[in-house]
Structure formats: C-alpha cells, structure tokens
Write a structure and sequence with these properties.
By secondary structure, this protein is α+β, with helices and mostly antiparallel strands. The chain has 2 helices and 7 strands. A hairpin with a 2-residue loop joins strand 6 and strand 7.
C-alpha cells in the first residue's frame, strides 16, 4: 500500500469519527432544546411545592392535583374550584370546576381547563 493510499484511509476514518461526534452533539442539542421548558420552567408559572397535600388558599382548602403547577390564583367558594390556568399558547384563562371533591384521582389542567383526572 502506498503512502498516498494510507493517508486517504486515515483521512476517511478521521472524517467518519468527526461526523459521528457531530451527530451525537446534534442529537443531544436537539433533545435539550426540545425539553428546555421542562428543564427550566418559566418563572411566571407557580411552582408546585406540595403536590400530595391540600394547599390552603384564602382560608379555603384547595384540592391536590398536578394543576397546581400550571394554574395560579386558585380558590374554592361554594364548592366550586376556580383558577387561572395556562393553555397551549402559554396564556392564562379562567377555569372553574364544580364539586372538585368528586375527583378521586385528583385534578389536572387540560389545555387551560380544570378537569377531573382519570385513573391512569
């Protein structure tokens, strides 16, 4: 094998390694970009501090549920849970849920609307 052929093979192998590294970095970067909101949630959303217990708000107990992450300004009055919930456009919209105690699996924010969570 000549020196020229050996240099071409070495260059070809090096190019394959560089391409593989670029591909891995691209996949990792794309995953990071796609999940950025999960890694660094918006500071405008109310963080969940106690998901398994009842949160107290204006002297009335607010039921537990994952809606606490995305529905600030929560209150219960006359057995109606009311909250401002983030929708798919990341804008707040008012939502209410009558008789929230019936939601035995908790309550969730579904596209800006409070709903009873179904068993999953």
């Amino acid at each position: 094998m000549s020196d020229h052929q050996q240099k071409q093979e070495a260059t070809g192998s090096r190019n394959q390694i560089i391409l593989a590294v670029i591909s891995v970095v691209g996949v990792l970067g794309g995953s990071l970009f796609a999940n950025w909101d999960k890694i660094h949630p918006s500071s405008s959303k109310t963080p969940l501090t106690n998901s398994d217990k009842v949160i107290h708000s204006s002297s009335t107990e607010v039921p537990a549920g994952n809606y606490l992450l995305t529905c600030p300004n929560r209150s219960v009055k006359d057995d109606i849970l009311t909250a401002s919930c983030y929708n798919l456009e990341n804008k707040l919209q008012e939502s209410s849920l009558a008789n929230p105690k019936r939601c035995i699996f908790g309550i969730e924010n579904s596209k800006g609307t409070l709903v009873c969570r179904e068993d999953r």
